[in-house]
Design goal:
Tail-specific_protease; alpha+beta; 19 strands; 15 helices; 6-stranded antiparallel sheet; 2-enoyl-CoA Hydratase, Chain A, domain 1; 510 residues; Pdz3 Domain; 4 domains; ClpP/crotonase-like_dom_sf; 38% helix; disordered N terminus
Length: 510
């Protein structure tokens, strides 16, 4: 027991030292020569590992962008400053999954615990971005009685439009899609902001509402005993929370199911993320209820769903298909060695490292035999590229799918397949993810040698099993209906309302 305590103490001290070194390195300047070496390193790794690097940009154009960037590096920069120079070039590749990790400050356990005792400052609002404007659309705690629809003009005297223009350059969707940025930027805006400005305890915001300007001071308040008790209660994992994949941070369920009418004619499934957690059980129980109720219509809502598990969308599709199907085409990678570059020991503590070391030969064996070569190209074996039978409780009625610019990655894969197979009517706006697939799957986490910035590189080309459109854009809806900021504030849902009216119209003619 004494030896165990010594090991834990040593691990804690090592962790603190690591955090201190990380934070010191984050604020130290890196020489221009070393930064240029980092640029070359990043491009070299992308060329080695990314299976479709020149999908949306030519090699000549990308070569020019990296060369031009190197010419601008003429003075030492901190890793954060360097990030804001390199990431826009990475974003120009137009692969939504491809992005440098912003070099953030790390916190000790004590600092994290202190932050957990406080309420958020900016996170207590919900936001909407239009062009270069930031609006508050929900004030969860009625802070200063700020009304939904209020525009935030500046933060600590710096115009919000300056931040939006700067951060917009850091984000790309797949290809030439135009709907994704505003959805994603509203969610990550303050991630970028706090990375630049730190976690302060106060902030002054200038606002505009109905022509009247006001200035407010926001505070990072201490949580009350009631708040802390609520946090503790939310962390408890009941059976319901597990199956519906409860998300404590937002006090919401990842998956929701209900009937939209009293006679259970129309079923509704909302999936906020294809997390896979308990998804098999959720769909099994849900589609059993739908079948027993004799529902004739099904609405699947994947708006603002950034994607996730291929296993989950393949399983979901099995409840929608009437005959055996293949969800995706064989997934291509750059070489047979690529699967071994996935940083097997990444984020392992001493105990995990020891256990993984014992299992490493098995891992290498499995990955080595997970690839195959065909027609001069290398592919990775995936269950989703094999024929899958429909589930016995597969839904046979009419399907509507709600999509928007926040439907990305796996959400775009399944909606592209549903549209191609004419299995669903898509309602909303163009998805944020590409119609013809994306590069993701699993990642190789590269660390730039001098700035120490992390660059995760997707290793698999994942494409739906369809005839490609080559539009270089997202999945287009069959029925285009936009949602306005006022719709959100008034809790109106014009896209779902259209589906309800269409169902009522069909039933009236039966």
């Amino acid at each position: 027991m004494k030896n165990y305590s010594i090991i834990l103490l040593a691990a804690a001290l090592s962790s603190c030292t690591s955090i201190r070194r990380h934070n010191e390195q984050r604020t130290a300047c890196v020489s221009p020569d070393e930064l240029r070496e980092d640029i070359d390193y990043a491009y070299q790794k992308l060329q080695q590992m990314h299976p479709q690097l020149y999908w949306y940009i030519s090699k000549k154009e990308l070569d020019h962008k990296f060369d031009s960037l190197k010419q601008t590096i003429d003075q030492p920069l901190t890793p954060l400053q360097f990030y804001f120079k390199l990431q826009p070039v990475i974003a120009d590749i137009r692969e939504g999954h491809l992005s440098l990790r912003i070099p953030r400050k790390k916190f000790t356990r004590r600092e994290i615990k202190t932050l957990e005792q406080k309420k958020g400052m900016f996170s207590r609002f919900e936001y909407y971005i239009k062009d270069n404007q930031l609006f508050i659309i929900e004030n969860k705690d009625s802070i200063e009685n700020i009304k939904p629809g209020t525009e935030v003009l500046s933060i600590n005297n710096i115009p919000v439009s300056v931040y939006i223009k700067k951060y917009r350059e850091l984000i790309s969707s797949d290809g030439y899609n135009t709907t994704f940025q505003s959805y994603f930027l509203k969610d990550v805006f303050f991630n970028f902001y706090t990375a630049e400005n730190g976690f302060t305890d106060t902030a002054n915001i200038e606002t505009l509402y109905h022509g009247e300007k006001k200035t407010y001071t926001l505070y990072r308040e201490d949580k009350s005993k009631k708040d802390l008790a609520k946090d503790k209660e939310q962390e408890k994992r009941t059976v319901e929370k597990k199956i519906n994949d409860y998300v404590a941070s937002s006090n919401s369920y990842n998956r929701n199911f209900k009937f939209l009418d009293k006679d259970s004619t129309t079923a509704y499934i909302k999936v906020q993320s294809f997390s896979r957690d308990y998804s098999d059980k959720f769909y099994k129980e849900t589609f059993s209820k739908i079948k027993n109720a004799g529902a004739k219509y099904l609405v699947i809502d994947v708006r603002n769903n950034y994607g996730g598990s291929l296993h989950e969308i393949n399983n979901l599709y099995s409840y929608l298909a009437s005959e055996p199907y293949v969800l995706i085409k064989p997934s291509q990678l750059t070489s047979r060695l690529t699967p071994l570059k996935t940083n097997y020991f990444r984020k392992s503590n001493a105990f995990q490292y020891a256990f993984k070391s014992l299992a490493y030969p098995t891992y290498v064996f499995a990955q080595t035999f997970s690839t195959y070569k065909k027609d001069g190209k290398v592919y990775y074996k995936m269950k989703a590229d094999k024929a899958t039978k429909p589930d016995k409780n597969a839904f046979q009625g009419k399907v509507f799918v709600l999509i928007n610019g926040g439907s990305f990655s796996a959400s775009s894969i399944i909606t592209a397949k549903l549209k191609y197979d004419k299995r669903a009517t898509l309602v909303g706006e163009e998805t944020g993810g590409a119609n013809d697939g994306t590069v993701a799957g699993f990642y190789s986490y590269q660390k730039l040698p001098h700035s120490k910035i992390n660059l995760p590189i997707g290793l698999l080309l994942v494409q739906p099993n369809i005839d490609f459109l080559n539009t270089k854009k997202g999945v287009a809806p069959d029925v285009t209906i936009k949602e306005t900021m006022q719709d959100i504030i008034n809790r109106k849902d014009p896209q779902l309302d259209w589906v309800k009216k269409e169902i009522a119209r069909e039933q009236a003619h039966q």
